[in-house]
Amino acid sequence: MTIARATTIRGGDDGHFDAIVVGSGFGGSVMTYRLREAGLRVCLLERGRVYPPGSFPRSPYRFQRAFWDPSDGLYGMYNVWSFRHFDALVSSGLGGGSLIYANVTLRKDPSWFVREDLQHGGYEYWPVTAEDLEEHYDRAERMLNAQEYPIRHAPYDKTPRTVAFMHTARQLGWQPMTPKLAVTFANDGEAPVPGEPIREEHPNLHGRTRQTCRLVGECDIGCNYGSKNSLDYNYLSAAVRLGADIRTLCEVRTFRRRDSGGWAVEYVRHDPEREGRRTATRSLPLEEITADRLVISAGTFGSTYLLLRNVQGLPALGTHFSGNGDLLTLAVRPTTTRNGKRVPVLIDGGYGPVITSAVRFEDEVDGGDGRGFYLEDIGYPEFVNWMMQVAESPRALWRWRHIAWQLIRQLVGFERDRETDIGAELSAFMGGADLSAGVLPLAGMGRDVPDGVLKLSRRGMLDADWTIDHSDAYFSRVRSVMQRFAGAMGAEFHDNPVWHFGRRVMTAHPLGGCPMGRNEREGVVDEYGRVFGHDGLYVADGAVMPGSVGANPSLTIAAVADRFADRLIDDALRDRAQAGSSTASKD
Ligand SMILES: Cc1cc2nc3c(=O)[nH]c(=O)nc-3n(C[C@H](O)[C@H](O)[C@H](O)COP(=O)(O)OP(=O)(O)OC[C@H]3O[C@@H](n4cnc5c(N)ncnc54)[C@H](O)[C@@H]3O)c2cc1C
Ligand code: SF4
How far is residue 413's CA from residue 32's CA, in Å, rounded to a whole number? Predict the structure, then answer.
């Protein structure tokens, strides 16, 4: 498919805006929609591409080009970061992380919004409470059309991974749940059916028909059926419909306060036609637009980086970084006893949405015996199973050598009395597909210690000082629960391979860097996202979290941004009314 060049989805006022939003993830999309809905002239600048249904890469050829590194001619959606002690994955594209996320929309636990002091061995201070966010959570859930996995309906009730996860959790005396997912399983008022055309009240910005979830486990590599309710199908489609000016492939490089008031933003336009050719981003021509208010929503890394490069005098900038306690491990080849024999338990990780079930482990603030966390099942695309099958083939070949030999003899014609129907032999040759059918990745996430620091390296690149050392007790607790879980499944427990490189973790949930705080020593923004000492400048995304959310964070990011939007709209409308009345009095 052809991917549009630097696209203006909907043109607006090309000169001055009421607000510019940088980045279209959970923070930026909510902001863009809410501000436009309130009648403000909004321009959204997103560095990545638009991804309509069917455009997400699947072949090795396309995957090889699916990374984000424009200076090296790569304009894809995977933005992979590798720091000294950890790695991180975020996304580039219209809709930000929602394009590749696992759709889980959990709220932060009310008791986890504690207001103690991190410096004194307690927890980070949260300037907002669950109560403050309640109406915003409700609104975000409605917009994202979050719904439970229909586990009581066929064929969803036969999702082997979900069944095995829930069964094992119950066996251990834990209470599994099915968290709400931002996925469409059914048309309104109808029973869920995979692969049905979704009836939408308004056309989406791609102008394509979506389908109800087809259970193909590809949520983390982009849903080619449009079943995920990613931000392009809700907040951003609504913002476009209302006339927001959304510019993709536009990467913000600098911003500054204008002498005449407001903010000026300079950005470059990327040209994917240059795919595969090096293009120094800094050599691209800069375009400038201006606005009364500037909202930076470029994600934890993007927003902190932009502020580090463009704003002075913020002592807490870069602080409170954490990976939301992410830990990935594997339960491999689970077994159960049937008729006195150990038999494999089917997991079939490629069937069903990537995450379907979870168990919550209490924090010490709720009476638990450590920092709280969630344990979740993880699925993956079917091609990963084929890769495992291929990796297993030398072993399988040896195990099933007599069948292989018979097949070869048949194929080359040595077998006199030929068995002409060879389906059973071919099936046996696949060897039961034990490994590929029996891998259950486990995800843990929770309340690690947010004491990382994001900063600029000597070369001016983003760098991070963060190890899991201060969260040792937390990670040990999560890991031992996962070991118990694997044991109860009769499975082998395996750490994620990167763990063996000095207990390295990989996070999909980087948070912090521009934390909310009570003052500029504690935070970069106040409880409404306003940057201390920089009138009209806001940050609204995962960067403002003062610590880990604990649960998967996107719904909390959306809710916090929705709260910021309320205040920004009030301030903008008040300024507009004042400007109107002073013009009227001059007249
Ligand atoms: C594999 C995976 C699975 C996940 N699953 C879940 C899940 O199930 N539930 C959950 O809650 N969370 C999940 N997450 C995390 C979730 O995606 C993030 O927490 C969320 O997207 C963060 O939102 P954000 O607004 O902070 O930033 P992002 O979503 O990262 O958006 C930032 C946007 O800014 C753009 N940008 C950056 N710099 C610039 C610039 N200079 N100029 C213009 N644009 C710029 C980026 O391209 C991006 O689109 C997952 C993440 C991954 C990687
Ligand atoms: S399981 Fe498949 S069809 Fe369903 S949301 Fe995920 S990628 Fe889309």
Answer: 68
What is the chain's alpha carbon radius of gyration, rounded to the nearest angstrom?
Answer: 25
Q: Which is nearest to 538 in space by CA: 32, 136, 153, 70?
A: 32
Per-residue pLDDT tens over the stretch 408-460: 777 777 666 666 677 777 777 676 677 788 899 999 999 999 999 999 999 99
Cα-based distances in Å from 342 to 29, 165, 273, 433, 489: 50, 18, 56, 16, 11
Interval 184-217: pLDDT, tens: 999 999 999 999 999 999 999 999 999 999 999 9
- At 271, list the tokens: 């040209």
Residue whose CA lies nearest to ligand 2 atom number 6: 219
- 80-103 b/e with 16+ CB inside 10 Å = b? ebebebbebbbbbbbbbbbbbbbb
Distance CA 337, CA 474 (A): 33
Say if ligand 2 is within 6 A of residue 227 CB. yes
Which of 161, 218, 348 maximizes ligand 2 atoms within 8 Å of its Cβ, making it the mutation to test the pocket?
Answer: 218
Residue 583 one-letter amino acid: T
Q: Angle, to 10 degrees, between the axis of helix 554-586 and the axis of helix 26-37? A: 30
Q: At what angle do helices 130-144 and 26-37 cross, to 10 degrees?
A: 80
* Span 353-370, pLDDT tens digits: 999 999 999 998 888 889
Q: How confident is the model at residue 383 (pLDDT cuts 50, 70, 90)?
A: confident
Q: What is the DSSP string of 122-135?
A: S--B-SS-HHHHHH
Helical H runs in 3-129?
Answer: 26-37, 60-63
Q: How many helices (H) and strands (E) does the chain have?
A: 12, 25
CA of 340 to the centre of ligand 2 (A): 38
Between 502 and 481, the more confident residue is 481
Residues 6+ apart with CB under 8 A from 220: 100, 101, 102, 354, 380, 381
Query: Are residues 164 and 441 in contact, defined by beta-carbon separation less than 8 angstroms?
Result: no
DSSP 339: T
* Ligand whose nearest atom lies closest to the CA of 162: 2
Residue listed under structure tokens 């590809």: 218
Pocket test for ligand 1, best of 50, 56, 90 (most atoms within 8 A of CB): 90
Integer Cα distance of 227 and 218 in angstroms: 11
Closest-approaching ligand to the CA atom of 350: 2
Is pLDDT at 14 greater than 60 in this prediction? no
Query: What structural domains and CATH numbers belong to the chain?
Result: 7-144+218-325+452-466+509-586 (3.50.50.60), 155-178+326-446+469-502 (no CATH)
Structure token digits, residue 492: 């082998």
| Residue whose CB lies within 8 A of the most ligand 1 atoms, among 304, 462, 554, for a mutation test | 554
Q: Which residues lie across from 358 on neighbouring strands?
A: 177, 376
Q: What is the pTM of this model?
A: 0.94
pLDDT in tens, 525-536: 999 999 999 999
Whether ligand 2 lies within 6 angstroms of the CB of 213 is answered as yes
